[in-house]
Amino acid sequence: KNEKNELKDIDIINDLINNSYNELHSGEWKDVKDVWRIIYNYSSIFKCFFFLKNENYLDALKQLDISLILSGSIIYFYYDNDRQLIDDSNVFDLHLLIDSIQEELLCKKNMKMNLNELDHIKLTKRKRTNNNNVVDDDIVFNNDIYLPVKKKKKFDDDDDDDDDDDDVRFFVDKVIDNIDNDIEIVKNIYKDKNSIKINRIECPSLIDFNEHYFKKNKIVIITNGISHWNAFSNDHDWNNLNYLKSVAGNRTVPIEIGKHYLDDNWNQKLMTLSDFIDNYVVNKNNTNNSDNRGYLAQIELFDLIPVLHRDIAIPSYCSISEIGSEESLNINAWFGPKNTTTPLHYDPKYNLLCQVVGSKYIRLYDQEYSDYLYPVDGKLNNNSNIDIEHPDYQKYPKFNNDIPFYECILRPGEMLFIPPKAWHFVKSLSISFSVSFWW
């Protein structure tokens, strides 16, 4: 009888999830009533408890992640009959439930791996790879996440990097070391004569930044402004993709698939961060195929996965604003393989684009040249019809080599200040992880 009631309950929960899901997709996000977000959120929590009862932790985690993506992070407060908050300790935060599930998964993983710990140690001493071939002493044991990982290599100019993607621990700073080669590659592709160099300044004071750049809407690169982030430290190094997988690999995230969001074949998929890294970031077949290229783009990842928020910090420059402005701060993540592209567009807010992993080529045009950039008609009019890499000068004759533009290669540890409505095109030159702050 209890089993029948339970099946009936899960059917009701699934109906609530499906109905609220349809309502969430019935129009523009801003026009959807909050009640549908709350219903979807509550229903997901109930379904999560059903999964947890059956020790199905991964499905429980996935259901909560999808709820966060679709309905946002909703915190519930408990009140008495007089609408007074009963107790701060009774606040229900979805992230607390997610953290508990993550801890349970980690405990189970560690218990399982601990049983085989001696085998891993023997593997190190025998100097064997997963395919049982004898190799030099290049395997170490990682006590934090119980995975055998390869030692970081020192790369020479004549190193062959064809097998780097197969490393258990994948370091992307090899490409960073070859940044001069990237510059030459870019110079060979983009030969327009009206390029304007962007100044690089080392961590200016708030007063200097406000007076010389913010007030004047002047593009600038700031160096040594985010080097203190945990994301650059040894223990939290985002260059180590295994670190990202260890703290967030089970989490479900939305991934863009295709050349870019203006392409007819573009679509989105939900997948775990580990699957995205394995199948799209380090998979050369998908990296080189623009139709199947994956990109975690413009995602408020740090609201979804707060543990990664601890690896970054909000730049103090974001505290500067125009008089009377009440713009909120949006923090977005941009993570993907080499050749991911964001087409020429502008954003209505101030933007600090912070480069953590890899390098990106960026081209920018001042707002005054908007008419020469052929904005897209309709709701996407902050995008340009111009394909920067393959411009059609006959179709768009006003776009020509006489239009001045800025360009740069943004390196790890640097921030690019982009004023509102400054057009910009972005292309990653390597595996790349960027964080943007809009305000």
Map the helices and strands:
Layout: H1 2-24, H2 34-53, H3 57-71, E1 75-76, E2 92-93, H4 94-115, H5 117-126, E3 139-142, E4 147-150, H6 173-177, H7 179-189, E5 195-197, E6 200-202, H8 206-214, E7 220-223, H9 241-248, E8 252-257, E9 267-272, H10 273-281, H11 284-287, E10 294-299, H12 301-304, H13 306-309, E11 330-336, E12 341-345, E13 351-357, E14 360-365, E15 405-410, E16 415-418, E17 423-428, E18 432-438
Parallel strand pairs: 5-15, 6-7
Antiparallel strand pairs: 1-2, 3-4, 7-16, 8-9, 8-10, 10-11, 11-18, 12-17, 13-16, 13-18, 14-15, 14-17
Helix pairs in contact: 1-2, 2-3, 3-4
Compose a concise summary of this entry.
The protein is α+β, with helices and mostly antiparallel strands.
What does this structure look like?
Helices cover 33% and strands 20% of the residues. It is α+β, with helices and mostly antiparallel strands and 439 residues long. The strands form four sheets. Strands 6-7-16-13-18-11-10-8-9 form a nine-stranded mixed β-sheet. A five-stranded mixed β-sheet has the order 5-15-14-17-12, covered by helices on one side. The protein has a two-stranded antiparallel sheet with strand order 1-2. Strand 3 (139-142) and strand 4 (147-150) form a beta hairpin. Helix 1 packs antiparallel against helix 2 (34-53). The longest helix has 23 residues, at 2-24. The N and C termini lie far apart (56 Å).
